Amino acid sequence: MSRHGNPRAIALAAVLFVALPFAHAEGQTRQAQAQPSSAAPHAKAPGKDPQALAALKDMSTTLASAKTMSFKVRTLRPMKLASGAWITLIGAASVKREGKDKLSVETSGDYFPFHFYFDGKTVTAFASEKKIYAQKDAPGTIDEVLDQAAKNGTVTFIFADIVGSDPYAAMTKGLQSAFVVGASTIDGVETEHVAVHGKMMDWEVWIGMKDRLPRLVTLTDTSQARKPSHALQFSEWALDQSLPGDAFSFNAPADAIKVPFRNPGQMVTGRRAPAQRP
To answer: Is 245 inside any structural domain?
Structure first.
């Protein structure tokens, strides 16, 4: 879900999509080994199914109530080239969150790799390969920092609402229908498969039956004629566990260069990164 739009990225665009340019193509993705939903042929007709809304609420409560969380996410993102051809980019991120005012993200894959730190007072974006970083004062909450970053185009994470204070409110904003498709198994985890229809996005989420955590999310952009689909897979969830004391702080290497705070892609390429569709 984007921080803007309906639903907001997990929009759950629940994936990481960083609004950064295609920097290099490398790496392989491990596909989710999902069995077809057992109840798919009998899925309820579109409507605001109370069972589906309850599943989303349970997931939101689990996420929002965690004092700390860490997880990894792998994404598949379609992108249209200037030639008109479509390609798929593979991205990955390692995410840590503590309370409402500490967040760190480390991205890799086909996207421009960088580290993002927020310690409740300062925001830092560090491109380790290029040894450059941007830093600015930003007292407030994770919600406030990510909302502001999305508005000014510096950094946008599609999974933003997962680490926000109220995932349910974000996921159901603009919701037109939601229903339970059935039960699926994702990498050995029994999940409840929920489908949601919004104004600009149709999306699905597979929620762990026992832990009530998102395991897989797919997004279809219905505002485009081709209706490109995105996918993200979550793994290595850990809630309410101790995190390293320096997880959210940044100590600049002696040879690192400080630059104005803007999109890390701009810092290196000198061109504006493509805007992410809400």
So the answer is: no
Judge whether 120 lies within some domain.
yes
Instruction: For 242-277, write each residue's pLDDT tens digit.
Output: 999 899 999 999 999 998 876 544 444 443 333 332
What is the C-alpha to C-alpha distance for residues 236 and 216, in angstroms, rounded to an integer?
13
When computed from its CA atoms, the radius of gyration of the chain, rounded to whole angstroms, is 18
What whole-number distance in Å separates Cα of residue 263 and Cα of residue 128?
14
The C-alpha atoms of residue 221 and residue 51 are separated, in whole angstroms, by 25
Residue 126 lies in a domain: yes
**Token digits for 10?**
């997990």
Find the mean pLDDT for residues 150-161.
75
- CA nearest to 65, candidates 97, 95, 105: 97
The pTM assigned to this predicted structure is 0.77
Q: Which of 90-104, 120-134, 140-154, 210-224 has the highest mean pLDDT?
A: 90-104
Distance CA(157)–CA(161), nearest Å, equals 9
Residue 175 is part of which domain span?
Answer: 40-236
Per the CB < 8 A criterion, the answer to whether 157 and 9 are in contact is yes
Count structural domains, the chain. Answer: 1
